[in-house]
Write a structure and sequence with these properties.
Blueprint: E1 10-11, E2 15-20, E3 28-35, E4 39-44, E5 54-60, E6 68-82, E7 85-97, H1 99-125
């Protein structure tokens, strides 16, 4: 099946604090699965009835010096079984946030992924061997 997404999704570790726009639900934390330029996917251990609601979020990751803060809309909530227990996967579409901060975070994430891939290649193949021009 062809990929339909417009932007690459990157697996990341972290969590998001969410608050509903209307204040009806108190703050709660969910674990981050992946992120793209348009949104983020998260897991929650509890079912939270916020489908199509506007939420304020604060994404916290070890790759960030400061959290990503913004506003989004919950686009989907699906129940899944992980480790024999139900979890709820939610998709949050970004509505309002500092796009330059998001791009910075995505660049860091991409660099970390590239480094992990290079290290895995070195572990399998040994060090890179320079070509006849003395470059790698």
């Amino acid at each position: 099946m062809a990929e339909r997404r417009e932007y690459i999704r990157y697996d990341i570790e972290g969590h998001i604090d969410l608050k509903t726009e209307d204040g009806a639900i108190s703050s709660f934390k969910v674990d981050v699965i992946d992120i793209s330029f348009l949104g983020v996917s998260v897991y929650s251990k509890e079912k939270i009835d916020i489908l199509d609601k506007i939420v304020y979020f604060e994404l916290i990751s070890g790759l960030l010096e400061q959290p990503l803060i913004g506003k989004g809309r919950v686009k989907y909530i699906h129940e899944e079984i992980r480790n024999k227990a139900p979890v709820f996967r939610m998709g949050l579409e970004f509505i309002d946030m500092d796009k330059s901060a998001l791009l910075h975070f995505l660049n860091i994430t991409q660099e970390m992924l590239a480094l992990k891939i290079r290290r895995a290649g070195h572990a399998r193949n040994g060090p890179d061997i320079p070509d006849s021009f003395g470059t790698y």
